[in-house]
Amino acid sequence: MDVREGYLAEHFQTAAQQREATYLGMWLFLATELMMFGVLLLVICYYRFAHPEAVAEAVGHMHFLLAGFNSALLLTGSLCMSLVVRASRLQDYRQMQLWLLLAALLGLGFLGLKGFEYAWEYREGLLPNMGDESPLTQPAARLYMNIYLLSTGLHGLHVLIAVVLALGMAARIHFGHMKLPERAITLEMVGLYWHLVDVIWIFLYPALYLLGRPA
Fold it and tell me: Measured between alpha carbons, how far is residue 156 from residues 5, 42, 108, 121 in Å?
């Protein structure tokens, strides 16, 4: 008998049925997240067409190289999560814990660097409610920075959740609460969430920092 049968919830008859339901539920959740960020991306695109000069002024002051380096940190974290899933299939607890901690560290690096970027933008008067000292002369450019702050702040919250999940999984492995292959699907769900966070950033980064940037 499949060892995972012992971990069945009452309303499931087989491990395969439970696994399929888990994947379906996770994909539905990820779809709702994509729809939420999809609306934000539509707003960003519309605003670029409606106020191209103002957006160009705002984007011209943004630190795209710093954000590009931050993108590399996040994508490397996604690679680590893929290696976690691979290690779980090999039932290598040590490698799982190592890659989870490294992914969490990279996620924290992303958040720390983003916080530094916010502080930099605050000193430059780019963030909302900076008064007359802002270098942005057009009201529409300042409004674009509101959209930028909302989009990146919401994404940052998702990164934080992904980091907490990774650290939680590492702690469960350390204390012997993660049994394989019974609980491998839990790690796969965390990996899917991390990949979602990466996919969102892959679209947000060029949409916010690169498109419309003055030559």
Answer: 37, 19, 10, 16
Exposure of 112 in the CB half-sphere (CA atoms within 13 A): 8
> Is the distance from CB of 73 to CB of 106 less than 8 angstroms?
yes
Using CA atoms, how far residue 186 sits from 13, 51, 130, in Å, is 19, 45, 44
Determine whether 100 is exposed, middle or buried from the number of CB atoms within 10 Å of its CB (0-12, 13-18, 19+): buried
DSSP-assigned letter for residue 135: S
pLDDT band with cut points at 50, 70 and 90 for residue 14: low
pLDDT in tens, 59-71: 998 999 999 999 9
Q: The whole model's pTM is what?
A: 0.88
Handedness of CA 79, 157, 202, 214 (dihedral sign): negative
Cα separation of 56 and 44, whole Å?
13
For residue 149, the SS3 value is helix
57 contacts 141 by C-beta, under 8 angstroms: yes
Residue 182 has which token pair? Answer: 């019974």
84 Cβ partners below 8 Å, 6+ apart?
A: 95, 96, 99, 100, 103, 169, 187, 190, 191
